[in-house]
Write a structure and sequence with these properties.
317 residues, alpha/beta, 8-stranded parallel beta sheet, globular
Amino acid sequence: MKITATPESFRLAETFTISRGSRDAAHVLTVRVGEGWGECVPYARYGETMESVAAEVMGLPEDVTRAALQDLLEPGAARNAVDCALWDLEAKRAGKRVWEMLDLPAPGPEITAFTLSLGTPEAMEAAAAKHAHRPLLKIKLGGEGDMARLEAVRRGAPDAPIIVDANEGWSAEVYSELAPHLLRLGVKMVEQPLPAGEDGMLAEIDRPLPVCADESCHDRASLPGLKGKYDMVNIKLDKTGGLTEALALREAALAEGYEVMVGCMVGTSLAMAPAVLVAQGAAVVDLDGPLLLAEDRDHALEFGPDGVHPPARELWG
């Protein structure tokens, strides 16, 4: 089977900003294994570049299998794209959908969050007002002035359910100071308030609202280190290294009493498609990558009032 790895860029509808920087395009790596394909987003936070991830992919043997892949590559973007491409390949060869091959119920639509990027309070209030009709807003925070941003978003969208993502931007003291205000403003959950590796204090301070591990949770091997610190885990295929491990992590996390969030990097419908399977019944779904784009793949995912729908077979799986 021929393996290819092609960098591609898709324009964003608006500049997207988090505590680590801004971007105007989604830069993705499209991987093909025979007639199957998948997508990943190399992430500098995890030491990945487009070149390093492409090199990992192209270093694989052409007869690679999903089972062998789990040992050949570490969890991360490269393994994700290849794993999802192999699932797509197997489904096409079998003439079945991926969920049929997994003996899973046919997936349905899932309500997804819509992310407001980090900005001035005035800009975030305007964005919140524009998207106040969304069933769930996710607010990017992580810096000085976060309280003013939160108040502004609530003014802009007085009735919308809100979750907050600090992207490792707070200290334990800042979190403790903000937590009562998060509750007052109706925030339902906070994602990764402290830096991964420096989050031990979460086991020692009050957590008055659920705290979700993102950068602190990659795959099943992460779970022992989360005990007592987190209430929820954010499963992203670019962290788990593909659908295979994402489904296993979901099962293991639920068995250990964690709630599950299914998230994404900023990518196209191809990247979201396999994650929709993991998102079935999740406590929080954040697969809004395509909603942030000015352009998407052909046969893009459908986003309706009832949420993000499973992929058409022409897209993936």
